[in-house]
Amino acid sequence: MKPFLTRVELLNTIPDDFPFLHLYPIEFKKNITVITGENGSGKSTILEALALKFGCAAEGGSINFNYKTEDTHFDYSPHLRIHKSARRIKDIFFYRSETYYNFLTEMRQLDAAASFSPPIRNAYGGKDLHMMSHGEAMKALIDHRFRAEGLYILDEPEAALSISNQINFIEKVIQLSQAGAQFIIATHSPIIMLMPNIQLLQLTENSFREVNFSDTHIAYMYKEILNSNGEFIKQIIDID
User: Fold this and answer.
1) Is residue 55 in a domain?
2) 0.90 exceeded by the pTM?
3) Cα–chain center distance at 180
4) Domain count of the fold of the chain
5) What whole-number distance in Å separates Cα of residue 218 and Cα of residue 211?
């Protein structure tokens, strides 16, 4: 099944000194695209711009949430052109691990206000997610909130999840993608990068290309660390 979002490119209105010009255009070839790269390489910048382009708040949530805790992002979404398939997107959600707490706070405040509508938390399993751990609240999001025919933009979902819960996360993502959902995920997790039948993109300072997991910097580092029984770390940080 063809992805909802197939391509994103920059318009010529973007400033010439924009630091991530080399990242565009981006082709989305599969229903699961995983993006990896070092801190500061532009992963979160790409996801944030896409989320804003689709009408989500910079701090996360669906297009029905309109809130702002801090104004610290550079919104270049007006300089993006997106290309979509003929399929209709029935749901959009932007998950950002570093601001998920802010999103849960906004949801709690909205549920506390007088309304004739059911509590928003009902769509997330019915419980106050603020009363859960970060990992439990993340699990509630994907177990109850995500569904087929949705576009889900996820920034470092592994930050909240144990290894076993990352595997459960992968199982859910694969099931939903096979039912038509599209996922764009930025991650440092080798477990998420090893999902079958994904498009894996690696960012560096000067390039952005499709790779196999074995060719990623993450794979190299984990292999060296695990095979050396910790000696590789000692050599890197020069410990006797």
Assistant:
1) yes
2) yes
3) 17
4) 1
5) 12
DSSP state of 128: -
* Burial (CB count <10 Å: 0-12, 13-18, 19+), residue 191: middle
Summarised one tens digit per residue, pLDDT across range 100-140 is 999 999 999 999 988 888 999 999 999 999 999 999 999 99
User: Is 222 within a domain?
Assistant: no
| CA separation for the pair 226, 183 (Å, rounded) | 30
Residue 152 counted as domain residue: yes
Q: What is the CATH number of the domain that holds 158?
A: 3.40.50.300
Q: Please tell me the distance from the alpha carbon of residue 154 to that of residue 4, in angstroms, as a whole number.
A: 16
For residue 94, give its domain range. 5-212
Interval 49-105: pLDDT, tens: 999 999 999 999 999 998 888 776 778 999 999 999 999 999 999 999 999 999 999
Instruction: Name the band, by pLDDT with cuts 50, 70 and 90, for residue 240.
Output: low
Closest CA to 172 of 126, 194, 135, 141: 141
Q: Is residue 142 part of a domain?
A: yes
